TrEMBL record, chains A, B:
Biological process (GO), any one: L-histidine catabolic process to glutamate and formate
Name of the protein in question: glutamate formimidoyltransferase
Organism for this UniProt entry: Acetohalobium arabaticum (strain ATCC 49924 / DSM 5501 / Z-7288)
UniProt GO MF annotations: folic acid binding; glutamate formimidoyltransferase activity; lyase activity
Transferase keyword on record: yes
EC number: 2.1.2.5
UniProt key word Membrane: no
Length: 300, 300
């Protein structure tokens, strides 16, 4: 089966269009990578790139783009609203198909090692790739930002996972890691009572005793006169979309409220929907190899 | 969006492995085509090849394989159990994604025209590509087979759609066309009473007053002590899988019989399952572009 991951690197350049184009060029040129989107925010002074591809092609293109960014961006002159600590601020890899989390973590390590050696860049591993619980959360690593990092990096507990224990003079430090893709899934309720939507969200989400890989809040859709349980499914392979859908439905019943539809926001892996179809049709022994398009993807 | 079709050409050679390998070689060599399967049956003396790919790549590889088959196979020496009228007996194209039926018909015409010119081969168009109702059905065209065709081809109503109105001396004549992919979908019933399965099948299928693009029969699964409504969905874009599933369920209710699962047999397009997930989750405004893998397929 073809191995596909998504990668969403964040670079600290959101204003200079020439530099932005140079940084994304490798994602356009290298075969086996499909550039899905890149958007620069001037106020954040930050570039967010979304792409998918095979492990090898992603690795090659990310390393090239990192080198270009390290070359072009001077963090001493960088200002923007978004917290940041390096020219290549953060690089998450997420498995899409045929890739285990362990393999995504391995890829993050390979990229971190090569980048640290080539660019003399200090690099931290985060989320599933984190080497200690304190490094799991990006915000914890990044606290202090570029300006405070010259000191922080010298504390033993903040020794980088790869590269020198001192800040790169212009590119700062980077964070690389692996995590599951988020699936943004909203379920609409036939009520304008936000309190009901919030009550349901509380029961469905992990923190309220609900589903392990589900975050949820109630949202008011004023224009339509309805409310919504807005969910982030943080691991669709373990907590499936149909589980959160059915759970919203049976929680809504106690309020006499109907579920009247749903929304899928942004990108998601095909498997998240195959799982839904399999559940509702009760399909026995289904294999992804039966999907014609999956066979084509083996070629990549 | 990438255009993908499936093509399942049938060649009249099921015994000589050297020849078989030569015929399938273009499907292995030409990029943009993924050879999914090829199987030769000695008794039928027939080779069935399954592949998917872009229109251009399919056209190129099918024409090359046809030329090789026309070169290698002498129908005067061919014997086998399966009815046949030519070296390249039949070539159906089926839309998988981003392709309309009109475009599949156009592709069938292009291949038929080029093949008839290059190989001096008489060619008939069938199914959706048929030019008259009498030519829709493959069995009607093929009746008489190679041995009877020297006469049949001279009747005005059996003038080929492309190529000369006489049989190719060694390769006979070919049938090329376009049709929807079949999705084989079986729904299991918690009863061993075949009569009930047959009654339900009768109500669900088109010929019994049921769904327009659904064929169905009852089947006894002796080993499991259950029965099954075995269906062929002849156009999943118009009659969706969830429709036939729900219909089996509500017909089964009158017998107090439960639906206890289902089976998807063989290959199917991803969209057939996306439609199911969309229905059961009630997803609003969903676009195939949101599926990560779909974006990768655009590259092909």
């Amino acid at each position: 089966m073809a191995q596909i991951l998504e990668c969403i690197p964040n670079f600290s350049e959101g204003q200079d269009e020439e530099k932005i184009e140079k940084i994304v060029q490798p994602f356009k040129d290298i075969s086996g990578v499909k550039l899905l989107d890149y958007s620069a925010d001037k106020d954040h002074n930050r570039l967010v790139v979304t792409m998918i591809g095979s492990p090898d092609a992603l690795k090659k293109s990310v390393l090239e783009a990192m080198e270009i960014a390290v070359d072009l961006i001077d963090m001493n002159e960088h200002a923007g609203e978004h917290p940041r600590m390096g020219a290549v601020d953060v690089v998450p890899f997420t498995p899409v198909r045929g890739v285990t989390m362990e393999e995504a973590v391995e890829l993050a390590n390979e990229v971190a090692q090569e980048a640290s050696e080539k660019m003399e860049l200090p690099i931290y591993l985060y989320e599933e790739a984190a080497t200690t619980p304190e490094r799991k959360n990006l915000a914890d690593i990044r606290r202090g930002e570029f300006e405070g990092f010259a000191d922080k990096i010298q504390q033993p507990e903040w020794k980088p996972d790869y590269g020198p224990a001192e800040l790169h003079s212009t590119a700062g430090a980077s964070v690389i890691g692996a995590r599951m893709p988020l699936v943004a899934f909203n379920v609409n309720l036939d009520t304008d009572d936000l309190e009901i939507a919030n009550e349901i969200a509380r029961k469905v989400r992990h923190s309220g005793g609900g589903l392990r890989y589900c975050k949820a809040i109630g949202i008011d859709l004023n224009e339509r006169g309805i409310t919504q349980v807005s969910m982030n499914m943080t691991d669709y392979t373990k907590t499936a979309l149909y589980q959160s859908y059915e759970m919203v439905k049976f929680e809504a019943e106690r309020y006499g409220v109907d579920v009247i539809g749903s929304e899928l926001i942004g990108l998601l892996p095909a498997q998240a929907l195959f799982d839904v179809a399999e559940y509702y049709l009760g399909v026995e022994d289904f294999s992804g190899d039966q999907i014609m398009e999956n066979r084509l993807l083996e070629e990549l």
